[in-house]
Amino acid sequence: FSRLKESLAKTRETFVEKIDQVFTGRKGIDEELYEDLEEVLIQADVGVQTAMTLVERVRKGVKARNVQDPARLKDIFQEELEYLMGDKISPINTNPDGPTVIMVVGVNGVGKTTTIGKMAHNYKEQGKKVLLAAGDTFRAAAIDQLEIWADRVGVDIIKHQEGADPGAVAYDAVHAARSRKADVLLIDTAGRLHNKGHLMEELRKVHRIIAREMPGAPHEVLLVLDATTGQNALSQAKIFSEAVNVTGIALTKLDGTAKGGVITAIVTEMAIPVKLIGIGERMDDLRPFNPKDFIAALYG
Ligand code: GDP
ipTM score of the complex? Predict the structure, then answer.
């Protein structure tokens, strides 16, 4: 928990401290205060829609409790934020009958390879047999990077040559996972956005092949988003979820960014649960997302 708290320092500075400033030194609760609150929320990457919802809820809370003192707004705000974020922890799906197949998607640079490496590490720590698949055959560097992680963590990797068919990699990986009795198969995919149509077609094809070779798979399609991109993360979520059935989100780089407020927008505006958060570059810096802990780390 202390590591989480430490990693959220930047977000705490912009989000919590600026919001506190809105509530302090006021004579009363007026329209200007609500406008300032909305502005601070939007600046903290909470998103326009969520900022408006949140302010509206605070306004109603104030009315319902007949609050006059601005100093009490902090507690009301925190309660409403907790309400919007919910208290649900969404774990990564598992397959009780064999290998759990996890397809990992996202734009280049968001931290896809790192997240796969950290997940492999976590599963291995739990005593699980892990297999990686280098499905981004478009970039030789992507295959190399994944191999570095496989070596570092000490797990096997299925890879083909650069330029090979990613569908063939997925096919081999699913069969290898079965025959080697792996518990978890983590499949990397390409993330070049310069030709969005091609990429989405490729992802759909990989998804189709996985499902054909193992009915019920992939058990998880994890979309990796970079918190430092703020509202862009939301547009990426929309693009990817139109192409494949995204079942969970991993939000990376929450450490060292002031844009951590974007998680509020993702939680409230997307129908896909945030399952993991990345809070640093170390192997153990990937955590299940627990909204209660997250808010406590921001405020505590
Ligand atoms: P990919 O292109 O999506 O596979 O991205 P990479 O996994 O190569 O990551 C891009 C950069 O982001 C690397 O320098 C990673 O170390 C860094 N990175 C990934 N996740 C995190 C995180 O949670 N926190 C921080 N600070 N850096 C991260």
Answer: 0.99
Cα 23 from Cα 74, distance rounded (Å): 7
Residue 272 carries which side chain, given as an amino acid letter? Answer: I
Q: DSSP strand E in 47-128: where?
A: 100-105
Ligand 1 site, CB within 6 A: 106, 108-114, 145, 191, 252-253, 255-256, 278-281, 285
Q: For residue 37, report the distance from its CA to the centre of ligand 1, in Å.
A: 32
CA nearest to 219, candidates 92, 110, 109, 121:
92
Which residue lies with its CA nearest to atom 13 of ligand 1? 111
- Counting residues of the chain whose pLDDT is more than 90, the rounded percentage is 91
Say how far apart CA 100 and CA 174 lie, in whole Å: 10
pLDDT digit string, tens, across residues 77-126 = 999 999 999 999 999 999 999 999 999 999 999 999 999 999 999 999 99
The rounded distance, in Å, linking the Cα atoms of 138 and 255 is 29
